[in-house]
């Protein structure tokens, strides 16, 4: 059985890796609350308050109000991302104030020594950020207005980054980002084009990215996935990923 202190150390490690792999445009600190804001992209991970110390619960009402003013200046709804590092007192405060809870998600990991990559296709990551962003937006069915913001985020990633896309001619079928950070390989923006799902494209692309990362020294793969995304969970579990911890989001009434 994992001791609670060991569990929290693991959570801290993946949370820090996530911040490095998916950098917000602006980062502010209120004690150990990390306030991440990004004008060019609406993703909740890039626009949320992330409490990182279970004991840092002083003056919650005042600090939430300060955070709210920052979010208002960016035109973003005040959002907290609640991991095991936030602790029960803050969650109790949210409950008492009637905040909604949504988008429960899992952080999953897998030792790369166990990854089924020996038969994976050797794929060279794309060097052209613009080409990858076009493929990613098309695969996800996302609005073209996100192009500049996603390009800026990818360009700001400091660890070595692999941009992977599977294509049929000029048609993108699947895409993902693999961030190699020390012995960790984080997978982000994993998506398969509607109409092309359940044909193995995602599995092949994930394995190619993990092979790329393992050859460069990564020892552990990890990713984040919404708990309601059963097809994705089935794929990741079949590859050998297991749950490390969960997080969710909170917003005030009416937000």
Provide a count of the helices: 7
Quaternary form? single chain
| Main beta sheet strand tally, sense and closure | 7 strands, mixed
What is the CATH architecture term of the largest domain?
A: 3-Layer(aba) Sandwich
Note the beta-strand portion.
25-35%
End-to-end distance, in Å?
Answer: 39 Å
Mean pLDDT: 94
GO molecular function, one term: acyltransferase activity, transferring groups other than amino-acyl groups
Keywords: Acyltransferase, Ribonucleoprotein, Ribosomal protein, Transferase
Pfam families: Rv0428c_C (PF24553)
InterPro entries: Acyl_CoA_acyltransferase, GNAT_dom, Rv0428c-like_C, YpeA/RimI_acetyltransf
Structural description of this entry:
35% of the residues lie in helices and 29% in strands. It has 7 helices and 10 strands. The N and C termini lie far apart (39 Å). It has 2 domains: 4-105 and 247-251, no CATH class; 110-246, Gcn5-related N-acetyltransferase (GNAT) (Aminopeptidase, 3-Layer(aba) Sandwich), CATH 3.40.630. The model has no long low-confidence stretch (mean pLDDT 94). The protein is an alpha+beta fold and 255 residues long. The radius of gyration is 18 Å and the shape is globular.
